[in-house]
Specification:
Helix content is 28%, strand content 25%. By secondary structure, it is α+β, with helices and mostly antiparallel strands. The chain has a six-stranded antiparallel β-sheet with strand order 1-6-5-2-3-4. A five-stranded antiparallel β-sheet has the order 9-8-7-10-11, with helices on one face. The protein is globular, with a radius of gyration of 28 Å. 39% of the residues are buried.
Length: 795
């Protein structure tokens, strides 16, 4: 429904004069209408994020009165500021956001209102007395709007659901699933179908399948894994020639046969498609499939028979896939290994772990041999393998953070990753050879704009390596290898990651840039990823000599539409370079494209929800360290300050530019640094600094630091933790501080007055300005697969 928005009044006279002085080209911009999504800001202004990916359009606070965060609108450029930047005016509201608003119920001067948890909404929601659903003041509630905002009126709503108190265990997850619209309740029809399924493999289900129950397939996963969707086995094999001496490996990757139980278009399939992926939070998972399937019937649990799809490969000593075949089978997992156990066995074949699993040691050594062969092929391809620090949040029973630790990636992780990559490549090739439509995991190279940014950055960092206009994976991989021993290696590798585009699902195969594959798809995780389930169905159809047809899928939502427009813009740019006439997509391919866009958009939604919960937990954790000092590394440089990651705690916060001292700092985008005009002090990516925690805003998911000095090391969190008692005495709340519990600011204590001293109390640490919000950063998705707790083989 389109709602016309009246103009908010005459523009100031100087704006009219300025507009008349603009060139004809600039004047033409005033008539161009931009369609996009409103993105609010906690300061009251906002932006229109265009659907086609063009630059955002600024909306002043008066334009945000009648719209809300996430509304889809049409806007035009109304004026330009003193720096020539465009400011917009909303002309139409195309569609109101259907997302509910989550916030705290408050009572002020007898009136009830809800303060949105997401500060980008910018306006409190008025709640009539009879619409509070008996919620208590301070509780977290879900609000449904009954009256929309207007230029001169606030939105009005009613409490739809009461979530509980903010300190209830798991409340941050309850907020996130509603805030990001993550489906978390299975339909009744889905649960009934799942309940009707048997608990074990039935005898009639063995028909037409290969019996692999005597093959010692094993699963290798993290300690906290509950769903096991892949198992592996390897043995030496004669790959080529007529001799009897093995000169390669036979590698079996068995994947849970989810498609056998989830029929095309049934209730379980519809729910799985709506979710598109499992969402992983600390201590909780929102699964794609009901628990009976994800942790029971489909999971390759040890010592039980399970149906599976097998990719059976012959791999040469140099890591090339010589041959492969797919078939349906029945397997029996002979062991459930953890990454830690396998790493211990590989490092010491006579140790305690090796003695415990004596019968499987040779199999694991064979797997390690195949891994080293596949690794050599990876190096020859020039695939990127950028090491970035991934962290794990360790929580107690109440959901509070106990510690944040780095995930140590050992040979066991890499072994499984290479085996999964090999199976995924075979699956993509099988679909191509079968000439059937399917979904590929597509990862395109850097755009020309990102290439130029990367080129300038490397030049300023003194890196002599050149980057061509259309770089290959080998070029970037060579740079990563050449800089891996530098102190700033992590920052350089992060810039390499930022230069690349995000991977998506698409029926059009254009290869995988980061992994240097001509064709790649996702086959190995059908329990937690819907694209893998579709790939299984296509492979089965090819094996039967049939053609797979997609079920009738729901209409794509807003996120998919925006992604589609951006892809169309990219395709149009590519078409201009090509002389070939573009082919018109068939109805079938358009359906596959819609499915790919849906899965890609929901994958991003899951990532955003997970990051939001982690940010909330980290803020809650850092409230215990208010006033304490730590050493850190500058991880991002912006025009308004530095984002610093504490070295031993893996928590990021902002040092606003006003907290850097009395100098005037200028932002150098090319060098990615702030430089003091008077002192010449420079802060760049990788700079070591010492900071003090001065402010924690739980609602805003923000942590603010103050710069202490650069260079010297400070006490680690272990020693800092010993001082928590004194730190808590400095926290607000004990002495009638006016700040709310969710926004805590460190205040230094005033020294006792002495008649013999002229020293004055230090001024209070400045609370961070409300404008200190971190802009949306470029995608930071590593090309290597993350650990399974967050989605193994997620490339």
């Amino acid at each position: 429904m389109r709602l016309p928005i009246p103009p908010p009044g005459q523009q100031p006279r100087e704006n009219h004069i300025k507009n008349l002085r603009k060139s004809p080209k600039e004047s033409k911009d005033f008539s161009n209408e931009i369609t996009g999504t409103v993105q609010g800001h906690r300061d009251g202004h906002g932006f229109v994020v265009p659907d086609d990916g063009s630059p955002d359009l600024y909306l002043p606070p008066n334009e945000m009165r009648a719209v809300l965060h996430r509304d889809r609108v049409a806007a035009r450029i109304a004026s330009y500021d003193r720096k020539g930047r465009p400011e917009g005016r909303v002309t139409e509201i195309i569609e109101r956001s259907k997302q509910p608003i989550i916030g705290r119920l408050l009572q002020e001067s007898g009136a009830w209102l809800v303060a949105p948890e997401d500060k980008r909404y910018g306006q409190d929601v008025i709640i009539p007395k009879d619409a509070t659903a008996h919620a208590e003041p301070g509780q977290v509630v879900v609000v449904e709007l009954t009256e929309l905002p207007a230029l001169y009126g606030q939105p009005v709503g009613r409490v739809k659901e009461v979530l509980g108190d903010i300190d209830d265990p798991g409340m941050e997850i309850e907020i996130a699933v509603r805030k990001y619209g993550v489906p978390h309740i299975f339909s009744d029809a889905c649960l009934q179908l799942a309940k009707a399924l048997p608990a074990t493999v039935q005898p009639q289900e063995w028909s037409g399948r290969v019996d692999l129950t005597d093959v010692p397939l094993v699963t290798i996963d993290g300690e906290d894994a509950r769903d096991f969707d892949d198992a592996v086995y390897c043995e030496p094999a004669v790959v080529s020639g007529r001799g009897k001496t093995p000169n390669g490996w036979r590698l079996l990757v068995a994947i849970a046969d989810v498609s056998h139980y989830v029929e095309n278009g049934n209730a379980i399939d519809n729910d799985a498609y709506e979710r598109a992926t499992s969402v992983y939070f600390p201590r909780r998972v929102i699964p794609m499939l009901p628990e009976k399937l994800s942790n029971g019937l489909c999971s390759l649990n040890p010592d039980v028979d399970r149906l599976c799809m097998v990719c059976d490969m012959l791999i040469t000593a140099t890591g090339d896939i010589h041959a492969y075949q797919f078939y349906q089978a029945v397997m029996h997992s002979h062991a459930r290994f953890t990454y830690t156990e396998v790493a211990a066995i590989l490092s010491n074949t006579k140790g305690l772990e090796a003695r415990k699993y004596k019968a499987r040691v040779d199999d694991l050594l064979h797997l390690h041999g195949a891994f080293k062969s596949l690794l050599s092929a990876r190096e020859r391809r020039g695939a990127m393998d950028l090491e970035t620090v991934e962290t794990q949040i360790v929580c107690d029973e109440n959901g509070r953070i106990e510690k944040i630790i780095p995930r140590v990636r050992n040979d066991a992780h890499k072994l499984i990753e290479e085996a999964m990559l090999a199976a995924n490549v075979c699956a993509a090739d099988f679909i191509l050879q079968g000439k059937q439509p399917g979904l590929y995991r597509v990862h395109e190279g850097p755009t020309p704009e990102k290439v130029e940014i990367l080129r300038n950055y490397l030049r300023t960092m003194g890196i002599a390596a050149s980057v061509s206009d259309e770089p290959t994976p080998r070029e970037l991989s060579t740079i990563a290898e050449a800089t891996k021993d530098r102190p700033d290696a992590e920052q350089i590798h992060m810039m390499l990651l930022r230069s690349m585009q995000q991977a998506i699902y698409s029926p059009y195969n254009s290869g995988h840039f980061g992994l240097a594959y001509e064709a790649y798809t996702h086959f190995t995780s059908p329990i937690r990823r819907y694209p893998d389930l579709l790939v299984h169905r296509v492979i089965k159809a090819i094996l039967r000599g049939e053609k797979y047809h997609l079920p009738v899928l729901p209409t794509p939502g807003e996120a998919q539409e925006k992604l589609a427009l951006r892809l169309q813009k990219s395709a149009a740019a590519q078409a201009k370079k090509s002389t070939a006439k573009p082919k018109k997509a068939s109805e079938e391919l358009l359906a596959w494209q819609a499915a790919g866009l849906h899965c890609s958009a929901n994958e991003r939604r899951a990532d955003e929800a997970s990051r939001d919960v982690e940010a909330w937990l980290k803020c809650k954790y850092m409230r215990d360290f208010l006033g304490e000092e730590f050493s850190g590394i500058v991880s991002t440089v912006t025009s308004f300050g530095l984002f610093v990651t504490l070295e031993a705690m893996y928590v990021e916060g902002l040092v606003h530019i006003t907290e850097l001292g009395g100098d005037y700092f200028k932002f150098d985008e090319v060098r990615q640094e702030l430089r003091g005009e008077r002192t010449g002090v420079r802060f760049a990516l990788g700079s070591r600094v010492q900071v003090q925690v001065i402010r924690v805003d739980l609602d805003g998911r923000r942590i603010d630091f103050r710069l202490v000095r650069a260079g010297d090391a400070l006490p680690t969190p272990d020693s800092a933790a010993k001082k928590r008692g004194s730190a808590k005495r400095l926290q607000p709340g004990n002495g009638g501080d006016s700040h709310t519990e969710e926004e805590q600011v460190w205040q230094p204590r005033k020294p006792a007055k002495r008649s013999t001293s002229r020293s004055k109390a230090a001024p209070p640490a400045r609370s961070s300005a409300s404008s200190r919000s971190k802009p949306a950063s470029p995608a930071r998705k590593a090309t290597r697969a993350p650990s399974k707790s967050k989605g193994r083989s997620g490339r």
